[in-house]
């Protein structure tokens, strides 16, 4: 297989690079160079090609998947479709309930955008199901599951390479308020604690590299030790993991494997910018993929909003890829409506940050909406709005007295009044 | 009447200052000094006393009120109650439909928090209703309406003192994409354009000061020329108005009148911090009251989120008072659910900014939630959450298999797993 990064390094502009460069209105040579340097990645799934990284628009990921208690594949496929309709850039299948192979295949098959996964979930769950314990999990099992995912057409996998025995030593000091909150992180920490062995994704990182090369699989280096509350943010544990990920990036640099770095989590507003800059600096400018950041712990039911705040600031500071968070985070498996709210909130954050980063296309989009609003062209406003379904729903649920205005100000619409006045005084 | 600011200047610690200082866990003398300097204000309504400004927690305002097309007082009173339940700090009655005197009295009477208003609405509407035109409005009418509001117990009024004939000259150049989007601003600009006269709230600012002294009424200097889209942000018109407001602040400095400065509006992420710093610098550090800022124009239906992003950054940068924006902004008069979403989104922004500003109480609140979450104490999480009603609704709508976890991860809950593992290995 000829790897995307290999070709970029040779200065070859692949059709994938050409097409996204055109879509993003950037120079294809520059994009190829950025891919060669590991500062951008190309993620593909059939016809859907996305570039994530330096100078690109910020992308949004949607997590779907079953849980042990709520396991309905058709429900997850509905979420997938809704997320794609609302223009998610990627989806991740985080299923942990039901037949994981079947579910993954169905999601990959149905998805119109690249699919990511977290193979350690399946590896651990199969170990528990077969042998009753996590510690029965063998090193080979982990790599076998990763290969299964790659073969099925998964485009990127989260691998928690930074969770090591030395992390366990720090964890033992119990300085954290909420310990380990990443499911993958908890699986690996538990396995290490129970077996006394080093995390194979770290100790056998070369094998991971080999697998990634074999399938041109993107490795998304997970943050299994991300803070689960504001008080734990930017602590020793989180920073140690980041430094380990930085070493992994160095090791993989010459292997032509595409890498993404995952980041926190729960982070106070004022620590987001330094977190983004640190991650970029430690990891050689690799594309940064953030979950949230959630900027306060007190808003369960609204974590799409706490994340949109954090994501916008992070994106502005340089994050490249935002994982959505839904209103049901910390409470339940999301509903279709939750998925909808989550995707839109993340897209708002990404777009607001794109504008702040000086992306001309993003700015022009807002200017078009401003123009439609000024003209009170409701049809055009609906077409341009981030979720036309929602726009229509709100406007059509209201008594519309005049087609020219909305019923918030009605005949006292400022824009309408200014129009009239200016006409009257001949301006 | 002995004015709150007069007493602060004399070094007298009033009971109002003492009580809010205690509530905010700050020094009463320092708060009094800040009020004397015009950097904080005390807003009162019966037993409800709020301080807004320097070193204080960021406050949230809820707009309610009828429109010409949707005029139902009981509906507005329901919104008021819901906003108060969700801990709004103030409400503003922006009614423009029905009997405005009656509606205002009912709202002031029913409100458990201080009430603000925008008297120019009523002045103009009465002119249109009586005489058929805006230009029939007399200078005295404006001040009469303001006095009526003060007599009824309104605690603060928005007065657009910075919209002047010189603004009209800039407007004539038509450099803006969306012109004037403030209702009050459009009323005053139209009146000036049609009569050729200067804005009385500017030319007769002394009369306004007299009225404010008479009733210890807080003047909230409105931004009638705020940008209505990102492309119009931080432009000549907006900055000219801000400079005029700065001169008003100087003029009022010795009159012992409490002042607030209102700010935009639609502002790109990267222009929010400079906007806050400019407003603070030009207006002598007066408390800054922002609407939004909305960080993208393309999300009608989600402007509570676009505003929460902007509000959090603005609060972090020094804004003191956030006016909520609801999901129906730009589309319709808000429903009860819209009010709920708007209040919570603004409170999230304010709280996230409080934490970033180093407020210890705010940080401790999040630590309590983190602790409850770590213990999987669902009852305590509900109590602590920003909207316990929503928390309960989401959790109770789901199949709960184990009381110990939620159905997002179920038995694979990271925190539960870590507990088990640590116990097993004796840590």
CATH topology (fold) name of the largest domain in chain A: TIM Barrel
The value of Rg of chain A in angstroms is 23 Å
Oligomer: homodimer
Q: What's the total number of strands of chain A? A: 10
Overall body shape of chain A:
globular
InterPro entries (chains A, B): ThiC/Bza_core_dom (IPR038521), ThiC/BzaA/B (IPR002817)
GO biological process, one term (chains A, B): thiamine biosynthetic process
Keywords (chains A, B): 4Fe-4S, Iron, Iron-sulfur, Lyase, Metal-binding, S-adenosyl-L-methionine, Zinc
GO molecular function (chains A, B): 4 iron, 4 sulfur cluster binding; metal ion binding; phosphomethylpyrimidine synthase activity
Write structural notes for this entry.
Two copies of one chain form a homodimer. The first copy, chain A, has 427 residues and is an alpha/beta fold. The first copy, chain A, folds into two domains: 53-355, Alpha-Beta Barrel (TIM Barrel); 361-424, no CATH class. The first copy, chain A, contains 19 helices and ten strands. Chain A has helices spanning 4-9, 15-24, 28-36, 73-85, 100-110, 119-131, 139-151, 165-172, 183-195, 200-203, 205-215, 236-252, 269-282, 303-317, 336-356, 360-374, 378-384, 388-396, 414-424, and strands at 40-45, 48-53, 59-64, 90-93, 115-117, 156-159, 218-221, 259-263, 288-291, 321-323. In chain A, the strands form two sheets. In chain A, strands 3-4-5-6-7-8-9-10 form an eight-stranded parallel barrel, surrounded by seven helices. A two-stranded antiparallel sheet of chain A has the order 1-2. In chain A, helix 13 (269-282) links the parallel strand 8 and strand 9. In chain A, helix 14 (303-317) packs parallel to helix 15. The longest helix of chain A is centred in the C-terminal third of the chain and has 21 residues, at 336-356. The termini of chain A are far apart. The model of chain A has no long low-confidence stretch (mean pLDDT 96). The interface between A and B is large, with 106 and 106 residues. Chains A, B: Keywords: 4Fe-4S, Iron, Iron-sulfur, Lyase, Metal-binding, S-adenosyl-L-methionine, Zinc. Chains A, B: Its EC number is 4.1.99.17. Chains A, B: One of its GO terms (molecular function) is 4 iron, 4 sulfur cluster binding.
């Amino acid at each position: 297989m000829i790897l995307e990064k290999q070709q970029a390094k040779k200065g070859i502009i692949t059709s994938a690079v050409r097409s996204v460069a055109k879509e993003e209105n950037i120079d294809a040579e520059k994009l190829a160079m950025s891919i060669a340097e590991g500062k951008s990645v190309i993620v593909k799934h059939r016809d859907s090609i996305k570039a994530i990284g330096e100078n690109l628009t910020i992308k949004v990921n949607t997590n779907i998947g079953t849980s042990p208690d709520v396991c309905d594949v058709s429900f997850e496929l509905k979420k997938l479709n809704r997320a794609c309709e609302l223009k998610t850039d990627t989806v991740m299948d985080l299923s942990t309930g039901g037949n994981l192979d079947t579910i993954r295949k169905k999601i990959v098959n149905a998805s119109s955008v690249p699919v990511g996964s977290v193979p350690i979930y399946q590896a651990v769950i199969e170990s528990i199901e077969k042998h009753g314990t996590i510690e029965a999990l063998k090193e080979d099992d982990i790599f076998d599951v990763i290969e299964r995912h790659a073969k099925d057409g998964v485009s990127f996998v989260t691998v928690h390479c930074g969770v090591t025995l030395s992390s366990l030593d720090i964890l033992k000091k119990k300085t954290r308020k909420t310990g380990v909150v990443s499911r993958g992180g908890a699986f690996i920490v538990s396995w290490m604690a129970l077996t006394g062995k080093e995390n194979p994704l770290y100790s056998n990182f070369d094998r991971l590299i080999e697998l990634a090369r074999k399938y041109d699989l993107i490795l998304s280096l997970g943050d299994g030790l991300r803070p689960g509350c504001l008080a734990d943010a930017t602590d020793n544990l989180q920073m140690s993991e980041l430094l380990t990920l930085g070493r992994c990036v160095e090791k993989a640099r010459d292997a032509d494997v595409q890498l993404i770095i995952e980041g926190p989590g729960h982070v106070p507003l004022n620590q987001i910018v330094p977190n983004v800059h640190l991650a970029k600096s430690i990891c050689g400018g690799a594309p940064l993929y953030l979950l949230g950041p959630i900027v306060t712990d007190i808003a369960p039911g609204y974590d799409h909003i706490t994340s949109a705040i954090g994501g916008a600031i992070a994106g502005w500071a340089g994050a490249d890829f935002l994982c959505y968070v839904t209103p049901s985070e910390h409470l339940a498996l999301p509903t279709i409506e939750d998925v909808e709210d989550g995707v839109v909130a993340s897209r708002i954050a990404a777009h607001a940050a794109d504008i702040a980063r000086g992306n001309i296309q993003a700015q022009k989009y807002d200017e078009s909406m401003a123009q439609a609003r000024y003209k009170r062209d409701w049809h055009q406003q609906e077409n341009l709005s981030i979720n036309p379904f929602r726009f229509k729903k709100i406007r059509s649920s209201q008594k519309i007295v005049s087609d020219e205005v909305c019923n918030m100000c009605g005949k006292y619409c400022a824009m309408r009044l200014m129009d009239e006045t200016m006409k009257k005084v001949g301006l």
